[in-house]
Amino acid sequence: MRAVRIGLDRLIEVVDVSEPRLDSGHVILRPVACGICGTDLHICQHGFPGTQYPVTPGHEFAGHVVSVGKDVTGLKEGDFVAVNPNVSCGHCEWCLENKPHLCNALTPIGVGCAGAAAELVAVPAKNAFQVRESIGHGEAALIEPLACALHAVESAGGANGVKDRRILVLGAGTMGLLITIICRHFGAAEITVVDPNPGKHAMALSVGVDRALTPGQLGDGERFEVIFEAAGAIPALRQALRHIRKTGLLVQVGVHEVATKVDVLPFTIYDHELRIVGSNSLANQFPAAVDLMHDVAGQAAKLIGDTYSVWDFKTAVQAMAGGTAIKTQLRFD
């Protein structure tokens, strides 16, 4: 079968490979939609922790079950599913604490093992969740990033943490706008999104933002109760630290380079009783995101922009890196 392959030299090719083996407890899927995100750009450009090159990318995906392995219950051929790409061991300290995204042996599909940019992909059955196909193929492929956004909001206290609060979201990419959609769904009082690219502001407003600003348009004296840094950029993090209200909460969800450093003032953290928390991946939120997508699919669908054939993966990555589309996806014609 055909598959996209990224080599250790970052060369992207379409190659012929053997069909995936059907192991016990696994299913084989035929993907129908797959998103590209910042993780894929890292894998293609300068590496991402845990990547096992050569690798077939693709971790935000949905598809149809084509075969079911031994000991699999609850799934059958033809079922439409979205996939949690985080394959965890199930028995380390983090798995036992219901934090599988921190698993000591985490092997993400599309990073540590073969992903969905292929004609077929094998996944553990426990990672495949049935979805109503009527929500749309692209929307189903957005469930993985929606789960990441939901984890970020849960890190801020969930519905109770954002309801009736003034929210600042830094970054109007997929993650920032999905966080916005969730905060609006949970009853936030006011949501401001800041992004240096004015081309993204109309999209932000269309999904429920009260204000969409460039960094320089945010007033010096404005303070927010909950801030999500979803840009993964040092200027955004610095701005977050300047605009957090006393007793406020900053959720760091944007992915920075491993060695990136930023100055913080410990006295301010102490004096203002600030809370700064990290939000990594999707934690255990995938089932909740499946349910939530059925409620917010109309808003989430607005984020889907450019689509490319999976066999044009290289072109898709280049376009995403240099374009203004919020969510670039692959189709499997």
Automatic annotation (TrEMBL):
PROSITE patterns: ADH_ZINC
InterPro entries reported for this sequence: ADH-like_C, ADH-like_N, ADH_Zn_CS, GroES-like_sf, NAD(P)-bd_dom_sf, Zn_alcohol_dh
Molecular-function annotations in GO: oxidoreductase activity; zinc ion binding
Domain Alcohol dehydrogenase-like C-terminal: 175-294
Keyword Oxidoreductase (UniProt): yes
UniProt keyword annotations, A-Z: Metal-binding, Oxidoreductase, Zinc
Cross-referenced Pfam families: ADH_N, ADH_zinc_N
Domain Alcohol dehydrogenase-like N-terminal: residue ranges: 24-131
Cofactor: Zn(2+)
Family: Belongs to the zinc-containing alcohol dehydrogenase family.
Protein name as annotated: Alcohol dehydrogenase GroES domain protein
Species name: Leptothrix cholodnii (strain ATCC 51168 / LMG 8142 / SP-6) (Leptothrix discophora (strain SP-6))
